[in-house]
Design brief:
The chain has a single domain (43-204, 219-284), classed as Porin (Beta Barrel). 13% of the residues lie in helices and 61% in strands. It contains four helices and nine strands; from the N terminus they run H-H-E-H-H-E-E-E-E-E-E-E-E. Strands 1-2-3-5-6-7-8-9 form an eight-stranded antiparallel barrel. Strand 2 (92-110) and strand 3 (113-129) form a beta hairpin.
């Protein structure tokens, strides 16, 4: 009996040891099998990059000759009564151009909202000459009859475009859709001219009527006025708005697609606006 009790004690002690040595590894090593946390996309901070684009510009020259003509005829009854300067001989022109440039900015994050600012520059070549339709009218002013012809010309070439924008977007994992609004500046080559020609005819009450033509009579007075201006590299200013999408494709590299509208304040009464689509790539520092 004593030997049986000793044998049972040995078996019990071995069972406890075996039980302690065969713990389930999934319980003991469960921390090693936890799912990895998804990577965090950091949009905040400074960034910069390059871009290419393509755009369409509309240039309106309709009133660009008005102050030139008003200045030329300022002392004549013809201008005071007939307002030749308001005659419209120039029109609008559409043009297009590719562009290339770069951008630099800063983002600040509040949870999923991204706010920031950006400087954006593009080298462009939007160039157009005004379509011209001369106007010839027989009119009266100051008791005299006049044959008047107005012609003109104008051109504009925008070579550089830069904007400073405020941006606001919402971060959705590695996507950042955004809207922007800002101020714009550019450089442009400008030219315009106007010519007024005609003849003061004899008063209509002449009896018999005195014709004008060679040989000219003292009452037939021909006239011709021309005035022109030009500038190279003139600065032009305006405002802009648009939107786009940045996509983070690597921890610090993103791709971009955006649209921007820019409207410039008139220069010499020449009005211009530009619609541009751009594609780019950038690095977040």
């Amino acid at each position: 009996m004593r030997r049986l009790l000793v044998a049972l004690g040995l078996v019990a002690s071995m069972s406890d040891a075996l039980a302690g040595g065969f713990e389930l590894p999934i319980l003991r090593g469960s921390d090693g099998y936890a799912a990895a946390a998804p990577p965090v996309i950091h949009w905040s901070g400074f960034y910069g990059g390059g871009q290419v684009g393509y755009g369409f510009a509309s240039m309106d020259f309709a009133t660009s000759t008005q102050d030139l003509v008003a200045h030329m005829l300022r002392q004549l009854t013809l201008e005071n009564e007939v307002r030749v300067s308001t005659w419209q001989v120039l029109g609008k022109r559409e043009t297009h151009s590719s562009s290339y440039g770069g951008f630099f900015g800063y983002n600040n994050r509040w949870e999923d909202v991204i706010l920031g600012f950006e400087f954006n520059y593009s080298r462009t070549d939007f160039s157009a000459d005004a379509p011209m339709t001369p106007i010839s009218i027989r009119t009266s002013a100051g008791g005299n009859d006049y044959d008047v012809t107005l012609t003109g010309g104008a051109s504009m070439r925008i070579t550089d475009l830069a904007t400073i924008r405020a941006r606001a977007g919402i971060a959705v994992e590695n996507f950042l859709p955004y809207a922007m609004i800002g101020v714009a500046a550019g450089r442009a080559d400008l030219a315009r001219s106007a010519t007024v020609t005609g003849q003061q005819n004899p008063p209509p009450a002449t009896d018999p009527p005195t014709p004008c033509g060679p040989p000219a009579t003292p009452t037939c007075v021909p006239f011709s006025f021309t005035e022109s201006q030009s500038k190279t590299g003139a600065f032009i200013f305006g405002w802009s708005f648009g939107g786009g999408l940045d996509v983070m494709v690597m921890p610090n590299v993103f791709l971009r697609a955006e649209y921007e509208y820019v409207a410039f304040s008139p220069v010499w009464e020449i009005k211009a606006n530009i619609n541009t689509v751009r594609f780019g790539a950038g690095i977040k520092f």
